[in-house]
């Protein structure tokens, strides 16, 4: 099994691309969704955030107020890094468990949807390929303002906290331009899908993994003789 990393800038349309890939039958692990799961009431990350930030970032029902926390961390680099140190390890553990499950059940590849794939850099070495979803700068600002009810200054601040789309596109294996119509984007995604489906990378990876396991078993058997 090989992993394809899907990323992009905030409000560039990554969810649209992910939805098209899902409709085509791709299995997708959404890091954002996992991040929501690990901060549910009672989870370790939820407890740590409560300890560090107090009750002000929680709703009356005990759930994390993501909008309130977002307002705090997007204006304070140190607090944003603190939240990342709390949440990211829990997200990574959950993702690794799900990847192992997909590997064991014989999947050819998995799409891993990670918003800050290039910014964190921690999972890049596991990717057989990366896909960046981009759009025009003006579109990104307008979409983010509308989606999150932000002022232009707030939208620019959030966009500025991420690596530029230009730099991400340079580093990507494939780029999906979501500046046009949904039909245009869908054509690009279907072309990408055909490319991924035709890849034989998964066989090389499985042979390598099986060879390593065989070597370990042989070594253990020799030691135990």
Q: Helix-strand pattern, N to C?
A: EHEHHHHEHEHHHEHH
User: Total number of helical segments?
Assistant: 11
Radius of gyration: 20 Å
Assign the CATH superfamily of the largest domain.
Answer: P-loop containing nucleotide triphosphate hydrolases
**Please, what is the oligomeric state?**
single chain
Please give the domain count. Answer: 2
List keywords for this structure.
225 residues, alpha/beta, five-stranded parallel sheet, globular
SSE diagram, text form:
Elements: E1 2-8, H1 14-23, E2 28-30, H2 31-38, H3 44-53, H4 66-73, H5 77-104, E3 109-113, H6 117-120, E4 127-134, H7 137-148, H8 152-160, H9 165-171, E5 174-177, H10 182-197, H11 201-224
Parallel strand pairs: 1-3, 1-4, 2-3, 4-5
Helix pairs in contact: 1-10, 2-5, 3-5, 7-8
Q: Could you characterize what this model shows?
A:
The chain has helices at 14-23, 31-38, 44-53, 66-73, 77-104, 117-120, 137-148, 152-160, 165-171, 182-197, 201-224, and strands at residues 2-8, 28-30, 109-113, 127-134, 174-177. It is built from 11 helices and 5 strands. The protein has a 5-stranded parallel sheet, with helices on both faces. Helix 1 packs across helix 10, helix 2 packs across helix 5 (77-104) and helix 7 packs across helix 8. The two termini are 34 Å apart. With 225 residues, it is an alpha/beta fold. The protein folds into 2 domains: 1-27 and 112-225, P-loop containing nucleotide triphosphate hydrolases (Rossmann fold), CATH 3.40.50; 35-106, no CATH class.
